[in-house]
Amino acid sequence: MTTATNTESGTLTSFNPATGEPVGDVPITPSSEIPAIVARAREAQKAWGAKTPKQRADILRPAGQRLLDRATELGRLLTLEQGKPLADGLSEVTHCGEKILSEVDEIADAVAPRELHAEGMVTTLRYDPLGVVAAITPWNFPMLMPQWMVLPALVAGNSVVLKPSEQTPLIAQAYADVLNEVLPEGVLQTVHGADDQGKALVESDVNLIAFTGSKATGQKIMASAASGLKRLILELGSKDPLIVLEGADLDAAAEFAARNSFRNCGQVCVSTERIYAEKPIADAFAAKLAEAAKAYPSGDPTAEGTALGAMVMREQKDLVVAQLKDAIAKGAKVVFGGESLEGNFMPATVLTGVTHDMDIMKAETFGPLAPIVTVADAEEAVRLANESEYGLGAVVFGPEDKAQQVAARIDAGMIGVNRGIHGAPGSPWAGAKHSGIGYHMGPDGHRQFCQVRTITRNA
Ligand code: ADP
After folding, report:
1. Which of 67, 91, 374, 387 is deepest in the core (most CB within 10 A)?
2. How far is the centre of ligand 1, averaged over its atoms, from the C-alpha of 269 (Å)?
3. CATH number for the domain including 216?
4. Does 139 reside within a domain?
């Protein structure tokens, strides 16, 4: 919960969503100052971009250890500001630190020039910096999301202006401060504020806008970017389905569904938000999921054993409660959880008897709800799973061959079969349909922060 908004100056106070207490504040960046900040970034990029990717990786690498050294303190700040359990705040910071240590080299390799040889010619394929990258990030992984954009952008030789979510400015600023201990001045800057600052940054003289957030904001950004034909990487909403087929290992499917619906209070872009279970196993699966949900108690995020902390803000919880009420009014049955708790807390909730006329099956939920639709067969499951404007992730549990056949027919960017969606190292993080444009990760994802150029000579 943050006082947010379209303020042009003053301070942005960040509140603890679990207690309502202020955690700290940052100065709001007046929108009128953003063009000068971007101009500074452009100037700083010249020397930074002139270094090799390997030199930039070497400069950035020590920031990984600095994050690890401060993981306890920063993990706590992340939790106080965002509401996820302390263990999750800590692991987000630790993950970021470890990833810096390993990923800077991966990125440097991906963007290093390479040669293509043919009869009588040699082409040098270069992955040059684009210039200034605007990174506009959400609050659900308030350190990891900035890192996903900032790290490849920087190693590729761009300078970056980061505009973190107004819900989580403190941890993003702390992250930028750690990187700035090792970076030359002006290469990474932050701007703080809400829509106005985001809009001003998008309208400024940047070369690429990397954005993760809502579809509505993504559309505004795309429209604004059109006039300058600015490059875009957009990761937008999703409504990930889970299909559970007859013959699936129901314990494994329920354990996965619980984890993937409830972690971070469901505030994850690849959360399971729709479950389709084949009729013969639907009741047994629902019972197992209700049982598995017991392992996800809601409470004080700083207390030992809490699995669901506070939702990030009241408005987010209200959306979730509205979807829950709509589903119940239209005939869904709560088989676990379901009561709206005090403050920003919401329990792990399992629903059965869900149908596609309910809001919960259409709009993004971003809350700890696991709605189960009973389907006649795999055919109906595929049809309903694909009946969404979104297509980020999807998971199928079932007998291996059949599950793989079903997976191949789902219109999503990342699909897991009898496991989550995370791919082997080097896999891209990609969305289909309205879940995004462009993608992150893997060599191809890293190269999206580059201008590809070919220089061809006679052999
Ligand atoms: P969420 O639903 O995750 O809060 P939003 O799309 O509202 O997502 O916000 C994600 C990020 O986009 C935040 O940093 C927010 O301040 C920023 N933002 C909001 N409106 C705009 C806009 N019109 N242009 C650019 N950035 C914006």
Report:
1. 67
2. 15
3. 3.40.605.10
4. yes
* Structural tokens at position 428: 């891209």
Domain encompassing residue 98: 4-236+435-458
Residue 6 has pLDDT above 70, yes or no: no
Residue 138 is assigned to a structural domain of this protein = yes
What are 190-228's pLDDT values in tens digits? Answer: 999 999 999 999 999 999 999 999 999 999 999 999 999
164 C-alpha vs ligand 1 centroid, how far in Å? 9
Q: Which residues are catalytic?
A: 235, 269
Give the position, in ligand 1's atom list, of the atom nearest the Cα of 218.
6
- Measuring CA to CA, how many Å separate 48 from each of 154, 159, 179, 186? 9, 8, 14, 10
**Helix ranges restricted to H, 163-213:** 169-180, 195-203
Tell me how far the alpha carbon of residue 59 is from its chain's centroid.
26
Choosing from 136, 162, 203, 217 the residue with most ligand 1 atoms within 8 A of its CB, the one to mutate for a pocket test is 217
The atom of ligand 1 lying closest to the CA of 224 is 24
Which long-range contacts (C-beta less than 8 Å, at least 24 apart) are formed by 255-258? 255/292, 256/395, 256/397, 256/419, 256/420, 257/289, 257/292, 257/370, 258/289, 258/292, 258/293, 258/295, 258/296, 258/348, 258/370
- 370-390 pLDDT tens trace: 999 999 999 999 999 999 999
Q: Is the pLDDT of residue 9 over 80?
A: no
Q: Which of 79, 84, 139 is CA-nearest to residue 315?
A: 139
Residues 231 and 250 in one domain: no
Q: Which DSSP category does 285 fall into?
A: H
Asked if 372 and 275 touch (Cβ cutoff 8 Å), the reply is yes
Count of positions (residues) in the chain:
459
Q: Which atom of ligand 1 is nearest to the CA of 212?
A: 10
Please give the residue that has the higher pLDDT: either 5 or 219: 219
